[in-house]
Write the structure tokens for this entry.
Amino acid sequence: MRPLSIRARVLYLAIVFALLLVGSVTLATYFFVADGMAHSAQSTTWRLARTTSLAISKATTTAKLQAASEGLVGEDREHEALRLLMREIPDLFTVGGVEDGSFALYVREVTDNELRLVWFSDDRAVLDEASGRNDALLDRQPTQTGPEGRDLLTGMFSRADLGSYVVHIPLYLPNGAVGVMDVVYLPTREEGILDSARQPMFIVGAFALLVAVLMLQIIMGWVLSLVDDVRTAAESVDAGQLDVRLPEEGEHEIADLARSLNALIDRLRRRAEAQTRFVADASHELATPVAGIRGYVNILRAWGAEDPEMREEAIAAIDRESRRMARLCSDLLSMIRSDGVLDFRNARYDINAASREVLAGAATRYIDKNLEFVGPDEGPLWLYGDHDRIEEALAILVDNACKYTPDAGRVQLKTRRHRDRVVVEVTDTGIGIPESDLPSIFERFYRSDASRSKETGGFGLGLPIAKHIIDASGGMIWVRSKVASGTTFTISLPRNRAKEPKE
Ligand SMILES: Nc1ncnc2c1ncn2[C@@H]1O[C@H](COP(=O)(O)OP(=O)(O)OP(=O)(O)O)[C@@H](O)[C@H]1O
Ligand SMILES: [Mg+2]
């Protein structure tokens, strides 16, 4: 894989993207779980504080009642009640009493001003910081001092540490003494849950990362394989191979591209085939008169000196064949000219006058055939276009009409206006065109079998040239014909050529 290939770039991007995505999801998940655990620890601490409060007030009542039952009164009774309570407290918070937390009791006697530690359940309960206790006494309500501002995410990469939660409960004891009970909760259970969740979370995260990168690579591989097909096709076209087809299945963008490229390749192939055919046909047509000329040159060499009759015949034949070649060359030139984007003039001309000129020209050429020529005898019918080119097309049609009509037949040229177009019809009473030939007569070098056998001497280039001129003039041409009865070619031309000529 090349380091700057699309596949490599997508791989880098995929890794960065997946790392960011999976990392942020893992981080967020851990944060919310840790936050939940911290809340749970806090509510556990407050629950412990409530239970502690209740237990102490119950024990205080019991101690007072017991002191009273011993017959003590006044200060003695209060004193005894405090003593009994102090004796009771350790049992209350250790054996079968309030559990889960650590407890420390501080008492301030009436005579004293200091809160003194009188009992603690374990070392964790003893906190040096006294401000929380003083606040609780001042506010006369339980106060929490907890793990403020602790960074919950630190536990993500090391052991979880949610800190310790403390609630200070103010106590009003017998004999006017006041005290504070510190309830300390160490959230080891919650930290344990976080610790056990960390490893699976990382494993799932890494797996998600791997899957994301793999998926992107698979998708990329699929897209690139489609692109690869396009590249192979382009290379084949470049190497001149035009029979390749790209896979077009699917409704995605690459399939659209493949369809466009296939259409392009088809167009190129058709053009290349047409060119090959044209060159082959043209050289074949040129080869025939050349072979004829060479044959007659050989005859001239062999017998030309002795046999004057033979010499004359050979010269006449060479003359005929060379004329044929000259005509073919001029037709080919005309064909190439009509293929190119030659500028079409756009001048006003009279189609009736042009038609009459064309007919007159044909009449002199086909004088021997004794044909009847009928042209438009109305006044001018004006239209815009290239006068010479349209006359060339008409001449081709009239020439065909004369050529393929037996002696004493009729060749007629009619014009009429139809909306914003001019319609010209060239009709003859000739041999007609077989129906099977009709679709092909506008192809280059196509000649129907009937006309080949008639030795009319054409090349099959007239109609393609005429059609090209008409198409490029924004017009249309079509044919109706009946064998042995006659043919009509119809041309429809726009009266005003607004559009540019087609190529
Ligand atoms: N008026 C027509 N009557 C009968 N057949 C026709 C007529 N016009 C054209 N064709 C047929 O169509 C074929 C193609 O005509 P096209 O003008 O292209 O070639 P061509 O006349 O044979 O040779 P070229 O015009 O190159 O000298 C002709 O060979 C002929 O078979
Ligand atoms: Mg012709």
